[in-house]
């Protein structure tokens, strides 16, 4: 999607993709991860999952295009922030929690690699043509043995043409298996999702994967 599309979404507060609660897969899977290890969170929006990760003792590096989303994250959570220019980004920081405002695809310019990453809303925000670029970028940013908790959505694609997009297991494997091992952690049917209840979608499933970067 073009940057203007997402800026308009935030400006009009059309952010149905935002979750007010901590993600279920994050809470159930992450407990085994080493405290103190920095976590990469691409296309983070104003997700409260950043707070959860920080609360587990992780430095957090979020990346977000929308300055409005970042401003809302800090104000809604009562956090002070310091601003600095870091490479191609404007960095918003509170203690060890940083959100880099700008194009995530410029992240290699920071020269960092990660052993942990969390993607709940990045892959599913991107149209088909950009998902391969995203998978290639994640391969560059993850160290050998590094793990990604990836959360996707599945529904009948012809029933919804706007993001968040449906990304099935076959596509996840096609995108990532060259550089990552791919394990399905679980699937949850969202039977009470408003678009399922209204009949607009036949089903709406949230699926979690563990990706491990090959050496």
Automatic annotation (TrEMBL):
Binding site for S-adenosyl-L-methionine: 10, 43, 64, 120
Keyword annotations of the record: Cytoplasm, Methyltransferase, S-adenosyl-L-methionine, Transferase
UniProt keyword annotation of Methyltransferase present: yes
E.C. code: 2.1.1.67
Enzyme class, spelled out: transferase
Gene Ontology CC: one annotated term: cytoplasm
GO-annotated biological processes: methylation
UniProt GO molecular function: thiopurine S-methyltransferase activity
Pfam families: TPMT
Protein name: Thiopurine S-methyltransferase
Residues in the signal sequence: none
Subcellular location: Cytoplasm
Record InterPro entries: SAM-dependent_MTases_sf, Thiopurine_S-MeTrfase, TPMT
Family recorded in the similarity comment: Belongs to the class I-like SAM-binding methyltransferase superfamily. TPMT family.
Catalytic function, reaction form: S-adenosyl-L-methionine + a thiopurine = S-adenosyl-L-homocysteine + a thiopurine S-methylether
Gene3D superfamilies: Vaccinia Virus protein VP39 (3.40.50.150)
Source species of the chain: Aeromonas media
